[in-house]
Amino acid sequence: MPSHHHFSTRYLSAPDVIDMVQRKGVEACLRGVADYLHADFLRWGAFDKSARVASHSRDGVIELMPIADDRTYAFKYVNGHPKNTRWGLSTVMAFGVLADVATGAPLLLSELTLTTALRTAAMSAVAARAMARPGSRTMALIGNGAQSEFQALAFHHLLGIDTLRLFDTDPAATAKLQANLQGTGLRTVVCTSTAEAARGADIVTTVTADKTNATILTPDMLAPGMHINAVGGDCPGKTELHADVLRQAQVFVEYAPQTRIEGDIQQLPADFAVTELWEVLAGQHTGRASDAAVTVFDSVGFALEDFSALRFLRDTATELGIGQPIELIPELSDPKNLFGLLRTRNPLLRAAA
Amino acid sequence: MPSHHHFSTRYLSAPDVIDMVQRKGVEACLRGVADYLHADFLRWGAFDKSARVASHSRDGVIELMPIADDRTYAFKYVNGHPKNTRWGLSTVMAFGVLADVATGAPLLLSELTLTTALRTAAMSAVAARAMARPGSRTMALIGNGAQSEFQALAFHHLLGIDTLRLFDTDPAATAKLQANLQGTGLRTVVCTSTAEAARGADIVTTVTADKTNATILTPDMLAPGMHINAVGGDCPGKTELHADVLRQAQVFVEYAPQTRIEGDIQQLPADFAVTELWEVLAGQHTGRASDAAVTVFDSVGFALEDFSALRFLRDTATELGIGQPIELIPELSDPKNLFGLLRTRNPLLRAAA
User: Testing the interface with A: which of B89, B150, B153, B180 to mutate, by most A Cβ within 10 A?
Assistant: First the structure.
């Protein structure tokens, strides 16, 4: 916490976070973010929570996701524009801020495009640890786009998944995923349909990007004991699961008020029974009811996950000495004299001197 | 708008914006922001508007203020912590972003601490031009803190105010304001109470900072034809005007749904009649009803004002060549291959090479 006027914001650029992940390793980062997530979900009641604020347009959505406990405030800016890859841009781009609740000072500004993929995968793995059958080894991975490697590695390192059954409507995406997973120890099986990929899978992860009400997964593909990690259905009009898949399963969510708007359960009545993940992690609710039950984690991405990820970035940046101070907020010799900034010698010249 | 993957965000630090204002001059900046504000308020119907998202804590508030038209999205992060000056920090600190609605790409990240003071003052002047009696020359300025110089200069340059009647509970604040206004051509009269300052004033500006339901201005201080520019009452539990001042006046607001929560009119029933400023600027509603009427601009600060200010900063930064590109969003050779970032040579080393 800043105690005087020599206060600056630490900035972590995208290259900084790439540097961080390369130096620590993807596995350590996934484990680290998962630990921070788990710890923060156990403090669920300590957070001032709200559904994100979305601005929808023809081709996509821009969202702000704020959350705070009594010491730290965080928010993320994130977009979702499925057509972006046509212009060479990412579908999802993000950045975020950690701030001090006591003063409002922004302490950290960081890229979150890469980090969002890490935290989403870590969240999926934390949920699956509480819901998937112990001994799960095979995962179907439907949608082999930008987030798929992170999901694959999170389930490999945190759950012991050793075999992936892959399907994407674009074979080039699957080939890219296979190439990126070389040397990780994961065995990959390329399938020609979602149904084929789901066959024999202990876990089915859906991470597709189309902004439509799709039915990627239908009831005929379910098998007793399956865990479904549904990641891609995450905004109004964007779903992946047939409604009957949800009706036949135990459904777990991050934060029910938001998931009822954005998740696959948007297809179902507002009183459809769901369990919030934190209740399971805190031991207040059982997870999987039986070996034969089908469980669904209807993941949409909640602000608390970015809070946890930003905490991980801050602590790791401090540990490794990564990032730069920036003067996003002016440094005032007298905080009651904002106008005085304009009467001083140009601070850019001062800084250069 | 980015058309390919060589996309970066322009960053304007606090020193950059100080540099901009020093090079253009405060008057030109106030006039410029006022022009952008006026133009955007005339396009009121084109904006996707919402009340800001506030996170209240014991000592203050942190807010996110998003808004968009069909081409540009903007948001501001801003805090309000009245006790901050004790730690040498500003009461209000802010930054903001302009983004491309079509792709979600953040195009500009800028300081908004200094800029918020400029845009708030410009907004007050734009409103007063539509509400104050023509020929107004004397303004009472109640609260001589961080924003007071900006209010003084905006009314001097945009309305022709030549005399200020000053009052603050802290005489040091008034002395600072006087010192900062030396050489501007404004005549200042130091008063020992709000009532004394208001006496003979054509316009009364209240810009106090206490987070309480204060009654800075009471009905006995009103005179026929007065315009009241109420700036400091801007969040729940923070008001400046006695309720009867509002009842005796024509009240104008920025965006009624937000002002009813945050403005001085929070003291009054939800059906208390107010007029939105854009209606007056667009000629859809008369402003001042008569020379004898008392008018109040119950200003709380609306997201559209930051949208306008960010547009002004972007255009002026381009004109003057101010600011730096930053890699807040990773540059991807293949946007479908986010994981590929981690398999390349460290981009920091690449950048240094």
Answer: B89
